[in-house]
Amino acid sequence: MPARTVISLENLPQTNFVALHKLHTETASHHGSAGERAFEHAFLNMLGHVLPVKKGNPVADRLMRFIGGYTKYMNERAMEEANKRGDDDDAEDFDTTAARFISRVLRFLFKGSVAKDKVVRYRVMQCIAEMISHLGEIDEDLYKLLRETLIERVKDKEVPIRVQATIALSRICGADEEDEKPTIIDVLQETVQYDPSAEVRRAALLNLPLGLLTYQTALSRMRDVDPSVRKAVYASVLNPDKATADPDAIDVTHPRALKIADRERIVKNGLGDREEAVKAAVAKLIATWVDIVQIEKVKSTIAEDALSSVFKTRVDILDSLTFGDDYWTDLSPERAFLARVFVDHCVATKDDVRLESALPVVTMLAFKIQEAYNDLNAFLADQTMDDFLKEGIEDEEEDERRQMVEEERTDREFVIGEMLKLSVNLDYADEIGRRKMFQLVKDMISEEDLPESLVARCLDVLRKLSSSERDLIRVVVEVVHDLRDRNDDEEQADPNRADDGETTFGETPATVKTARAPPKPPAEMTEEERARADAMDMRCLSLCIGMLERVNGTFEENSTLEGLLGELIIPAVKRKEAALREKGLVSLGLCCLIARRMALNSFQLFLNQLQSTPEKHKIPVLKIVFDILMVHEGHFLGPTSPNGDRIVEFLMHVFENSELDEVQALLCKGMAKLMLSGFITDERVLRSLVIAYISPETADNLELRQCLSYFFPVYCYSSAANQRRMQKIFITVFKQLCEIHQQSEDEDIDLISPAQVGLLFADWTDPQKATVVAKGVPGREVDESIHIDLATDIVKELFDDDMRKDDRKALCLLLGKLYIPDTIDDDKIRTLKLLMHNIRARRPLRDLASKNAFVKFETAISKKFEKQLEDFNEEEYRKLEHLQELFEFLDDIIPDIDDVDEMMEAPKKRGSRKRRSDSIVTDATSQGAPSGDDRSNTPFSTTSSVASRTKGKGKAKRRRLSTSDDEDEDTETEKMDSPQTVKPPTRVMPKRSAAAKTRAAVSKVINLVGSDSEEDIEETPSRKPTSNLKKVQKAMEAARIDEKDLAEQEDEIPHDSIMDTTLEEEDYEDEEVNNLL
């Protein structure tokens, strides 16, 4: 008899596709449909052995790839045979051996997609993902079933399953029809944006078909909270190798196809990222763009960052640049920009050799700036005349002319601005050149027609050339007074004095007090005069803002600022025009940063402006408020400040009621900085930030999400006190999230699960991660007991009867994720053990998963801290004053009376046998922990010897009225190691206040039964009125303890049980119950 050939699962992926296909076709051809079904049955049987294999098994992964490869090979052979026959009938494609095989395999997998086991669902989705690219043509019903299955699994609760379902779904986008709702594209876009798992978002991003409707969704992931997703945007979606491989192949992500705004956003977000890996991916991308696109002239720093990145990654470009005298002859915007960024790069890298060869002579550059500025003024004068002559003409040619004029004006301003930026890095050892540049810049800011974009650049040069801050302030104040003076400037100026920038503060009066004509009241001005006065005030306020931004001294040291404050800034704050009032507020805020007394007097003004200002105008005011709080923290948020709590409450109120995403993000950044700096320690603020981070309402506010995703780890790992605050708010946040889940069960809202929130808190409060940070900071200590306290809070919360099953399960599973150090304070570990013991005694867990997780955690604690728990006496523990609150909490807990109701409703189920509950002093081993020696050595056990446990009996203990089903099962299955059968001690009610509450609870049950009996009597007259009363009497008789047994047990075991009570109390309770009956 020939030996049987055994095909193992491990060897199956090595089988040749050809051999398997030959076996398949021969079986189908020789035995017909029966042979084909036999092959399919054998194939599915072997596939069924693979589905329960957990993720990560390489053999199972090879099998899944083999099934996908075989599907591809089988369809290719079927297509070749059809081409040889010349068969063009599409109807026969669905009735081939390959089509029938694929249909049966898919239908088999669809059944497993709804399996209860998550491993099976994962393998099913993995197999479908491998097959789906090679399915060929399938019938309409099978496609609809496939589509519905994948869309359903995209919302699976397990992350690996969602990943595989997303990959599979993305590969059938081309077969989707527009009338099918929701479309596959919509599902993928929603997954990319809102899935809580970064792994799923990344898989959806990499497999999302890019088009005009989807590429913006892909670009939005540049602000994702996870760095791997952000990196995938630059490295995979905007693939730099794809742009250089085929320059003619231009798709939506090609740099030439991207809009300028999109390119600016890519550079800004990428080079501004905090992760070095993301920056490296962006730098590589920009380096490939240099040869494809031209660097655009922009007003922001985006192009500058891009060019600086190119200089770092493409050294060949940096070496090829030279700046001779001919280069500065005719400067275009591009040439000026390149020279300025090159100089800044050399200064940043301290490359003095290249810097010396690139910098022009100071005097020559000053004349170039003067010439360019004069040309700009002449150009603007000519265009003003043309506009006056052509006023009222509206046609396409005129619109084109105006557009060209605007572009020309922008180019000229850009060139002047780049030369002024370059001037800051010049060497002013040449005194002639320095004086020339100083006078030129001063004359430029004195011009009314100076463009707004050049004001800040001129002030930078002026600050560089000024000998001190006082000199800078003096010059700017003089210019402001000159601009506001409507009389002849020449009469007030000293023509014989040449200002060379070297005059010191002591040689010049602080303020020039000359007789000036009083300003004309606004009511007496014409409309043209009022407009010109407002424009002049705007220019002066811009100068003040620029100057104050560059001042670091105090307001008292620069008395010349008082004139600007009273004549310009305060009147601007009182104006009704929004633009003037906004600039006035910014100027006042900058003054408050260098004047503490002014900040104290003006802070309420800014808070009032936040209440009255429209939402879109709150941003500058909020910046002022947070700047003042950061600079003068001790006077507003310090421990001695009387208004600190009110300020925090106000900011929280604005944060919770703001509707604009930019305002929310700014408030979030400000409060995060204040908390990170230690200025705010209020747990309410931290709780609000956490709620904002996990709230679905902020899912679209990527700026806020990214800020908080960076803030929470840095905040928690930087200080043990911060981790402690995070631990204290966990239960509150968890309960609030559970309420939101419960309220939104009927609504289609994608909320983060309580289990995920628990994992976030476990990570943020992990002492091990704080230890890594503390090693680099001398004197920094780590509190390793934070997770023990978190476990205590979790166990306390498990006493809540109203908690849902899923929420209780999430808390129990979270216990296993906590870090338990080797050394813990005795009080803390005993408190935790006491709470866990009372959970089993008074609130036993019903759910199997919760119970197993809880028992596992309790067993680990008992084994690890066995020595600290072995001498624990609860009576002595009660005497500690600082634990009175804990025992009051425990004494207020009354065991569930659900078991009482069950006994009263069905007493015959127990028969005459009176079952005792588990001992209150037994360890967690009675619920599933290891038996034997481990049980005897655990805390709360009466003794370590079986013989000693069988000698005497404990003090009298009352039986419970009933016991749960889980406890019944545990009691029946529990076996003792000793050959003797020991009757376990019974559980009793807690002492003191618990006794009275127990009597009240029993009375309530009896009254409820009595009331029910009366209703039943009224509804059913034939029923005996004493039936329910007899049930109660039988139940109470079953709960009583024989007095003789009590007397025998009383003298042998001391009163050391946590739940011990006295015989007198029990007799009193029994007597009272009898009276009630």
Mean pLDDT value? 76
The percentage of residues in β strands lies in under 5%
**Broad shape:** globular
Q: How many β-strands, per DSSP?
A: 0
Main sheet properties: none
End-to-end separation in angstroms reads: 83 Å
Question: Percentage of helical residues?
Answer: 55-70%
Number of helices: 52
What is the rounded Rg? 40 Å
Structural class: mainly alpha
The low-pLDDT segments are 1-14, 486-498, 500-515, 899-1070
Please describe what this structure looks like.
The structure is a single chain. The protein is mostly helical. Helices cover 64% and strands 0% of the residues. The chain has 52 helices and no strands. The N and C termini lie far apart (83 Å). Residues 1-14, 486-498, 500-515 and 899-1070 have low confidence and may be disordered.
Could you give a short description of this structure?
With 1077 residues, the protein is mainly alpha-helical.
Secondary structure topology:
Layout lengths: L16 H34 L7 H28 L11 H16 L5 H14 L8 H14 L5 H12 L13 H11 L3 H10 L7 H6 L6 H11 L2 H6 L14 H12 L4 H14 L12 H12 L1 H5 L13 H17 L2 H7 L3 H28 L6 H28 L7 H15 L6 H14 L3 H16 L4 H4 L34 H23 L11 H14 L3 H16 L2 H17 L5 H14 L1 H4 L7 H14 L3 H16 L6 H12 L7 H16 L2 H9 L1 H14 L10 H11 L2 H9 L10 H12 L7 H11 L10 H17 L5 H17 L1 H4 L4 H5 L5 H8 L6 H8 L27 H5 L8 H6 L13 H9 L19 H27 L7 H13 L3 H8 L12 H14 L1
Helix pairs in contact: 1-2, 1-3, 2-3, 2-4, 3-4, 3-5, 4-6, 5-6, 6-8, 7-8, 8-10, 10-13, 12-13, 12-14, 13-14, 14-16, 16-17, 16-19, 18-19, 18-20, 19-21, 20-21, 21-24, 22-24, 24-25, 24-26, 25-26, 26-27, 26-28, 27-28, 28-31, 30-31, 31-33, 32-33, 34-38, 35-36, 36-39, 38-40, 39-41, 49-50, ...
Protein name: Nuclear condensin complex subunit 3 C-terminal domain-containing protein
Pfam families: Cnd3, Cohesin_HEAT
Family: Belongs to the CND3 (condensin subunit 3) family.
